[in-house]
Design a protein that fits this description.
single chain, 345 residues, mainly alpha, Serine Threonine Protein Phosphatase 5, Tetratricopeptide repeat, 19 helices, 79% helix
Length: 345
């Protein structure tokens, strides 16, 4: 009779008839109250029903009766995690991982428990391993991002306690202000950092970016120039400096910086776009065409790609190639309409 109820419970569980399975396993427990597998089986049913508070004492009883029982500890840890009992969840999941390091989900569950406990540095390797195993799992990626953000916050707190008026502390504050759109405050912090240590890398470039966002190209030119003194080979800084010079109407000066950026990073499509504009402004249409055709073969921001076709249309009209000019004008209109439609969504 006992075996019949066990068999019926397992068959019902396999068929996802969970209420029926629960009834069978409850009967088994009444008939054999010291049978660990019965508590384990009923625990898995309650787990599958997401009735985690009911599953927990069943799994605990199974482990009490048979400490060496397999597969229980990990799911018990998960159920504690689901009910917000994070310390107990982490304790169980750590032991479960020691017993079975191949269990695919334990890293994700344990990393999530550590995250909830604020133990971000312990969470990261577990969540990294989980994400490596499931690279399309958005939930794991979300938790991993939160863990890294938590570590960043903790490190920043340590930095401010250790050296509150250091250049590094002011750079950190500048980054935080810039990310929140408080650009004036960010400029102030970056300037303070640069005053304390003019050699600190990246500060002048960050200032330049903020000045560009405010269309203050004169200040941006000065900031990028100071960054180039520290890092003259940087493709990004050479590119940005060249763009600022072009915006200031100093195209002949912009060209060598844009060329230097492309020499360091030939895939920098945006540099080809601005190099073409610099040549076009000087009347060197042959070089402008070559630069813009190179830009066409690169991945550009959508708005820049739209502008590129308009620029090419104008160039081909100037060089008496009306059919090619019309082709690029049509593509300009098509992409512009597409972009506008996307913005309305």
């Amino acid at each position: 009779m006992l075996r019949q109820h066990i068999r019926a419970g397992l068959e019902a569980q396999k068929a996802n008839r969970l209420d029926e399975a629960a009834t069978e396993f409850e009967t088994v427990i009444k008939m054999a109250p010291k049978l660990a597998q019965a508590y384990m089986s009923l625990g898995f049913v309650r787990h599958d029903q997401h009735r985690y508070p009911e599953a927990i004492p069943l799994f605990e009883k199974a482990m009490e009766l048979k400490p060496e029982i397999k597969d229980v500890r990990a799911f018990l840890g998960f159920d504690y995690l689901q009910t917000g009992q994070l310390s107990r969840a982490a304790e169980l999941l750590e032991k479960a991982q020691e017993e079975d390091s191949s269990h695919a989900q334990i890293n994700a569950w344990l990393g999530t428990a550590y995250l909830g406990l604020g133990q971000y540095r312990k969470a990261i390797p577990k969540l990294e391993a989980a994400f490596k195993a499931q690279p399309k799992n958005v939930e794991i990626l979300f938790y991993l991002a939160r863990a890294y953000a938590g570590v960043s916050t903790q490190l920043n707190d340590e930095l401010f306690k250790l050296a509150p008026d250091s250049p590094e502390a002011h750079v950190t504050l500048g980054i935080s202000h810039a990310a929140s759109g408080r650009n004036d405050e960010a400029v102030r912090e970056y300037k303070r950092a640069a005053d304390l240590n003019p050699q600190i890398p990246g500060v002048h470039s960050a200032l330049g970016d903020l000045y560009v966002s405010a269309s203050d190209y004169e200040s941006a030119e000065k900031a990028y120039g100071e960054e180039l003194q520290l890092n003259p080979v940087s493709a990004v800084v050479n590119y940005r400096y060249g763009v600022v010079l072009e915006q200031l109407g100093r195209s002949p000066e912009a060209v060598p910086y844009l060329q230097k950026a492309l020499a360091s990073d030939p895939a920098l499509g945006e540099a080809y776009f601005h190099l073409g504009r610099a040549y076009f402004d000087q009347g060197d249409l042959k070089k402008a065409e070559a630069a813009w055709l190179n830009a066409l073969n690169q991945k550009l921001p959508p708005q820049m790609e739209v502008s590129l076709h308009l620029q090419l249309s104008q160039l081909y009209r100037k060089t008496d190639r009306p059919e090619t000019a019309e082709k690029h004008l049509r593509e300009f209109k098509r992409l512009q309409e597409q972009l506008l439609a996307q913005e309305k969504k």
